[in-house]
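thread: overnight batch results

M.L. [08:02]
morning all. the overnight job finished for the chain we discussed friday. pasting input first so we're all looking at the same thing
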Amino acid sequence: MYWRPIREADLLTCLELQPACLGDQIVGRGTALRVWKAFLDDPSFQATVMESEVPVAGHRIVGCGMGVFVARAFADREVADPRPGLNSRIIASVASGNPCVLSRAEIGDANAGAGLDFVNLYGTWRERGLNPGQLAEIHGLLGTSFVEHFAGYRFHRVLKEAIGASGIALARATGTYRLLAEFPETQSAFAVLTRESALAAPYSAAAALYRYQPPVLRLRPAEQELLSVAVSGKTDSELSADLGLSVEATKKRWLSIFARVDQFKPEILSQTSVDSEGRGPQKRHRVLAYIRTHPEELRPFSWDA
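M.L. [08:03]
and the structure it wrote out:
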């Protein structure tokens, strides 16, 4: 099994895995589904899909995780007064036109400041057709994919409403989430992960999430966009097609990246051959090697905050 970013075609399949997480209690199913679809283009929304190489009970998608970065004031209220229906209040805020989710600029401010509050809207899996070994693999994959997906963000808290007996049991089993309240009437519980609780288990996946360091390259969003795609090893032609750029524009973007690296972290390129032939590919190799181990360089960050 492996994880990958969500695609629009996956959304309904994922939401059907755990209908109780749909968050339609306030606005109704139709509006909730429209908000989920709109989330796919929202910089605050993050989602991954757990997929099996061999179909399980006729399905390739066996689990998923989805969530949003939220305003500090919203998170403070939820922690101070835990109630059932966390997802529904987020969905309703977006539908009302007064969203509690963050814009890209606000994510950058929080990354450069006191850290981000994140709501894990959805972390679920197929209950039927999976044997205990497969379930354990999915549970482990949900944790590792979460950390890998969010490496480079400065986290403050992670909130979630665990749904059902298995969801609550999994939240307890992590040893890092703290259950603030349980709601027998809805078979759910409100849980929070903090820096302190994560680092108290230093070898946990949660602890890895909080090992943050700020970026240094001061990359522009367009440069981050190029590098985010380039880390997969694509050629300029492939990058141009993916980003909707000409090959010349892609090459100019690389030159801009090299200039920033040379200005802010010149040691990355210091051992590049002085011979002009092959110098460009060598530079890219060194920059991408650095980026792969420093994902914070690809995250929104407000340098003036």
